[in-house]
Recover the amino acids of this structure.
């Protein structure tokens, strides 16, 4: 048995190499294993999206580009967490705890990417899209500030961030849905935005239990967030591509390509050459 173990050593040595020093509550080995699995999901999804972008028409790659980047960022941030990197020790309820800022870096990219995808699908104005992107950033950054605040004043940051999420939910579920319905994609839009907002509803809960009030351990918190993140970015990314097969990109005004400017210039020249009647 001993010789067998020597031949087949345990593969995950991250916690031995990047051992957390001077922290009471830390990531467990099984938690690191889970994070490696999430890293693999993100990495394989990224590769899949990258390959699919080469087979899609140039004018219909907008969602490929948006979510390929989000998946790549997710892969590297989960790689950092699985390696027991990208964290700081924060005192909560009398004990020090690993707070992984890497996951907030992931959300700073993931949340606005999904907001941008929904905004382009719904056909709302660019001012609405930009406003929603800033709301998502505000939400994530206030939660990050709350996680690193060691007193009860952290709940003030939490409250500000949660209000931003509520406004964002109202915009993506109400105003944007009305616009999408006018374009004939209302049912697909509400399915995507409804799923996203259902997951978003659980992020304040997960934060309050983990980085907020230290009611669950580091590993439990990262498992909670990992499930939410996988159901959010990889799953919704592929859902976008599947549903996009039935969308008219020209009607949605998202048929972008490297030749878009040339086509528009040629169209304008033809219109100028048409004699007035």
């Amino acid at each position: 048995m001993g010789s067998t173990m020597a031949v087949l050593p345990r593969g995950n040595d991250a916690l031995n190499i990047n051992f957390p020093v001077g922290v009471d509550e830390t990531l467990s080995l099984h938690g690191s294993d889970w994070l490696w699995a999430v890293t693999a999901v993100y990495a394989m999804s990224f590769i899949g999206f990258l390959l699919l972008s080469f087979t899609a028409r140039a004018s219909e790659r907008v969602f490929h580009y948006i979510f390929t980047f989000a998946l790549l960022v997710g892969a590297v941030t989960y790689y950092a967490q699985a390696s027991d990197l990208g964290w700081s020790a924060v005192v909560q309820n009398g004990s020090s705890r690993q707070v992984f800022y890497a996951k907030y870096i992931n959300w700073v990219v993931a949340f606005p990417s999904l907001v941008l995808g929904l905004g382009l699908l719904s056909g709302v104005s660019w001012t609405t899209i930009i406003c929603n992107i800033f709301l998502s950033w505000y939400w994530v950054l206030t939660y990050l500030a709350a996680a690193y605040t060691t007193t009860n004043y952290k709940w003030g940051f939490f409250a500000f961030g949660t209000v931003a999420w509520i406004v964002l939910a109202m915009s993506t579920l109400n105003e944007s849905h009305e616009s999408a319905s006018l374009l004939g994609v209302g049912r697909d839009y509400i399915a995507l935005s409804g799923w996203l907002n259902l997951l978003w509803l659980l992020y304040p809960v997960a934060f309050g239990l983990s980085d907020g009030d230290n009611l669950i351990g580091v590993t439990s918190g990262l498992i909670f967030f990992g499930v939410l993140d996988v159901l959010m970015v990889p799953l919704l990314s592929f859902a976008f591509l599947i549903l996009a097969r039935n969308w008219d990109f020209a009607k949605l005004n998202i048929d972008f390509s490297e030749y878009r400017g040339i086509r528009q210039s040629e169209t304008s020249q033809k219109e100028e050459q048409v004699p007035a009647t």
User: Anything to note?
Assistant: The domain at 25-249 is CATH 1.20.1070.10 (Rhopdopsin 7-helix transmembrane proteins).
